[in-house]
Amino acid sequence: MSTTASGVTVKLNTGAEIPLLGFGTVSEHDTETFKLALKAAILDAGYKHIDTAWYYNTEELIGDVLEELSLSNKIKKDEIFITTKVWPCFWNDPETSLNLSLKNLKLEKVDLLLQHWPVCFAKIDDSNGNRIPVPKDSNNNILYDKDGDYLITYKKLLKLKDSGKAKAVGVSNYTVQMLERIIKETGVIPACNQVELHPHLPQLELYNYCSEKGIILEAYSPFGSSGAPNLKIPLIIELAKKYNVSSADIIVNYCIAKKIVVLPRSSNIERIKKGYALINMEKSDVDALDNYGSKNPKRYIKDSWGDNIGFDHWN
Ligand SMILES: NC(=O)c1ccc[n+]([C@@H]2O[C@H](COP(=O)([O-])OP(=O)(O)OC[C@H]3O[C@@H](n4cnc5c(N)ncnc54)[C@H](OP(=O)(O)O)[C@@H]3O)[C@@H](O)[C@H]2O)c1
């Protein structure tokens, strides 16, 4: 058994293995800091999974790093599991989005392609011909596509899987009701659903539904996003003392114990190099964290386009 979290995998419903620890690639830093962080994640911490998206604007940097490390024989590109996502402004032409991502990542295919949000924005290009990620009217209201339907996007993603450009297809920010609808309409169960999930938001109903259907849940913003507020939860600090690890290790292992993919982000080289210890968390401690979150639900990512999705604990 691996001693660090980066070596543990779970099987997708396609039969492929996905590493339970993935490197989050939203960036609040300059390009050089981002590249150094990614190199440390791959070379020092042994990350084998990168979670990215067209929307993050980091795909070209990831492509540069993968190219450099592969040309210098430090990695083989196909050893790293790559996830990218289709943003709602591409809801009706996800192939355009995937082609842009593949070009930037310098890859011919990705391991996992996700629909980023089950919402549909209007398709508007700027004067340079680049798609506007979040189109707005003069009153700053988001422009949605009245004819949009997230089911159409899902059907188009399935076709991209058939074309071989994505080895697996999944969704993100879906509720149980939305999962039920796309499964009923297409007969195809998505490989993954990536949602905000952590000990402040255990999403137990969604977890039980996905477990039953064989959908792998992926936890984004595991530390509570910028500033990592979840690391200060008293129960997490207590468990960190009990197992003699960090608070971050507790959150990562909470997810791993539940076979949930966990996607922490960091730009701090020292922290990245340390990686996350793999511990054998007792079931009673996992249950205690579930229980804490059920009683104290808190959502940190509250983008306005989530308003109509019907999330619990949105406000
Ligand atoms: N599908 C979606 O809609 C969606 C939405 C949001 C995020 N995501 C994915 O999930 C990933 C992670 O979520 P996130 O970016 O919101 O944030 P996160 O991973 O929950 O938290 C990141 C923050 O935690 C800090 N941090 C990390 N390790 C720490 C430690 N050991 N001690 C103290 N602080 C620590 C980081 O600061 P330092 O840089 O200083 O370490 C950063 O400020 C994203 O990068 C993205 O890949 C997906």
UniProtKB/TrEMBL annotation:
Write the record's keywords in alphabetical order, separated by commas.
Answer: Oxidoreductase
Which residue range or ranges hold the NADP-dependent oxidoreductase domain?
A: 30-289
One Pfam family this sequence matches: Aldo_ket_red
Matching InterPro entries, A to Z?
AKR (IPR020471), Aldo/ket_reductase_CS (IPR018170), NAD(P)_OxRdtase_dom_sf (IPR036812), NADP_OxRdtase_dom (IPR023210)
Q: Does the keyword Oxidoreductase apply?
A: yes
Cite the position(s) of the site with description Lowers pKa of active site Tyr.
85
Active-site feature positions: 56 (proton donor)
- A GO molecular-function annotation: oxidoreductase activity, acting on the CH-OH group of donors, NAD or NADP as acceptor
Q: Which Gene3D superfamilies match?
A: NADP-dependent oxidoreductase domain
Give residues annotated as binding substrate.
Answer: 116
KW Cell cycle (keyword) present: no
Q: What protein name does the entry list? A: D-arabinose 1-dehydrogenase (NAD(P)(+))
The source organism is Pichia californica
